[in-house]
Amino acid sequence: MKWRTAAIGMLCAGLLLGCSEAETIQEPESEPDVQEEILEENEDGRAVEDEYTQQFLVSNEEEEEGFYRMRGELDGFDMLIPRDAVMDEDAHTVIDDSEEAFVYSVGEQEELIVELTYDRGVTEELRDGHVGEFTDSLNYNGVVNHEMEQGMRYFTGALEEEENQIYWAYIFPEEEEDSQAFTIIYTTSSSAERETFDKLIQSFQLSEYLQ
């Protein structure tokens, strides 16, 4: 009987040791994943981390996944901006408290470059001419799409270069007495970025229309 007792004791000890080893192996597996998820959740985009870009953000919280909302210095408009966008400080200009221009890029190799201009001194008589001048400046001879939505007129187009896709828009209010206008030139090395361009356009708002 003693040998059976000893054998049972050794078997139990073996099982306990096996369980202990299994627990030791299993316990740390989930910890690194949880820590990585926490870091990812708390990580801010470059738009927040860059001191100059941050001053144009309406909030340091993403409005929707992958995007913050930005507002110009003249408070004329606001729109979404990619979370990793960085403003070019040298390219930001304000003229006569009426015109404002921005350039921001995304990616270490500037895979995306966005140029924005806002002007609140464009009369109705000048608008149609400005659309033509704008497309001429891009050497654009393609189709110009024209849509009206929520009191705004949108002229848009797209062209291809050897290495880039360029999407553009010229936007202004339908109201004849409103002298505001906005342009965006969106240059990317990826054709898949059209979806982001459309998102930015759809998010655009003139500040006085928000009141």
Describe the structure.
It comes from Alkalicoccobacillus porphyridii. Keywords: Signal. Residues 1-22 form the signal peptide. It is built from 6 helices and 11 strands. It folds into 2 domains: 2-41; 46-210, Mog1/PsbP, alpha/beta/alpha sandwich (Protein Transport Mog1p, Chain A). It has 211 residues and is α+β, with helices and mostly antiparallel strands. Strands 3, 4, 5, 6, 7, 8, 9 and 10 form an 8-stranded antiparallel beta sheet that branches.
Class derived from helix and strand content: alpha+beta
Sequence stretches where pLDDT stays below 50 over 5 or more residues = 1-25, 30-42
Tally of alpha and pi helices? 6
Shape, per Cα inertia axes: globular
Indicate the mean pLDDT.
81
Task: Give the tally of structural domains.
Answer: 2
CATH level 3 topology of the largest domain = Protein Transport Mog1p, Chain A
Full CATH superfamily name of the largest domain: Mog1/PsbP, alpha/beta/alpha sandwich
Task: Provide a quick synopsis of the model.
The chain has six helices and eleven strands. It is α+β, with helices and mostly antiparallel strands.
